[in-house]
Amino acid sequence: MQGNATQRERIRPGLDPQYDYKNQVWIRGGRYVNCGHPQGMSCNCYGRAHVGQLATGPGTIPGYGLNGWNKNTVCIYDGPSMIDGERIIVLVVGLDTPSINGKTGDMIQTFILRADVNPAVAANDGSGRDYSICGHCALRPVLVKIANLNGAENIPCYVDQIRGPAASWESWAAGRVEYVSLSECAARIRPLITCHAIPCRKSCQLDHGFPELGRHFKKHTRAQCGPRVHGIGGTGRIVPLGQRIGSYGDPAAVDVSLWENFLISGRKHTCYIHQWETAPEFSGLSMASIDGQTWPDIGAAIEAAKAAGFRWYRVGQPGELPRPDEIVCPESYGLTDCANCGLCDGAAPDPRTARPRALTGILIDPIPGRRGI
Q1: Is 297 within a domain?
Q2: First to last CA, the chain
């Protein structure tokens, strides 16, 4: 296995053409490409039989588009991991249904996943296959189990692999997720606005609630988000839909250029990477994610991140106060959510003023029910 630097120089994302592994055929511009075998050869290749045809999904299925695609999800990358070279995919989720994440608010989500295995299995079966998308993060469940067998009291990653990433991977594995270019993905995101409905925190966790009305609306599609909905919950403002890079998986598993071209100018975004020590090129668009399990000396890790040009984000210990160069996450006080805040967007100069940004950090209170890390 080659090191990170070598991988980063050798592997570049190629979104078009894409390879259809199921049918063993290349797709360019959304259409099947001829196999390239000699014309007189009887190869029975899928590409030869379907050359020039649109690469379509299965037949019409409830909840999917007219050509069978999952309307909520697209794939923008299918290729090698920058961490270990294994095949991974990047799924963009939330095109049709608003996010129900109460902390982040409604944002486009991105899942970075192993292509060959359900993410819930990869993270918990002891095989270590989640290394391809999570790298050396000590919050990986398999590493937590090993550490705790040796007397530690570590906690695993708090991302729910089952409800979001696993369901999206299952849809992709069934051939129901469309492959699109970054420009096509941007064209689909650009008209979307943030749903300000507030997830109910009492009993209907999967519903959108409007406390002002004393009732709750069931989970709905963006087509059902009219002015009446957006004028009630949250701010009532029309806010362009933000983008969350790495809702699951480390963004550094993919070349930074993909994310630079994924982001839409003028939109809020969030991004956190654990591989910041070997991926300094991410400093402009991502926070360095720092935790006490991966870096027992938090102070030294923060100084190393600053030296690499990163701002940082970390979960504090119970009762811990921020350092002089940190602020407490505004969401911790219930003041806003990630969709409306957007502070966790790296160290790039402010686009409105072009002024350099101070290398400061954001401290979040311990996750409810868990000790600080």
Answers
A1: yes
A2: 31
